[in-house]
Amino acid sequence: MTLEELKKLISKDETKNIELKKSTGELREGMHSACAFLNSDGGILVFGVTPSRRDIAQALAGIEPAVSPVIEYVDIPDKPNHQVIVLMFNPWVYGQKPYTFHGKPYYRLESVTKAMPRDMYDERLRQNFPHQFSWEMRVADKITIGDLDEKK
Length: 152
Hints:
Blueprint: H1 3-10, E1 18-21, H2 27-39, E2 43-47, H3 53-60, E3 63-64, E4 70-75, E5 83-89, E6 100-101, E7 106-109, E8 112-115, H4 118-128, H5 130-133
Parallel strand pairs: 1-2
Antiparallel strand pairs: 2-5, 3-6, 4-5, 7-8
């Protein structure tokens, strides 16, 4: 990504697919948005001051299942050793397990990152593991072989 492309990207306000963070102080909140992008339509997370690459890697390790976003560092002219970091996340696809950050799922609603409601999370799990949620897999408590009717 060039500096001009970055300027064009951040000249807009935050949207459903773009989240802007000022510094590493917002790394945890940024990972909430990353998780939301992964569970929604994908998106781009931009940090204004480059956190160390190790900090980014450790923060991304909190997302499950594991993810490898495209990461680009853009040098800032007139500011030696300063870069903007741009992380790009693919959208969630039905049939894939939903993503969590430190055990909690998030999703994106317009330009807001929200905790995913339980029913939405459960539905995505059912999409991913239909065999685990089918009636055939449920235990029939207090039913014996004698309760079966051969005629039915």
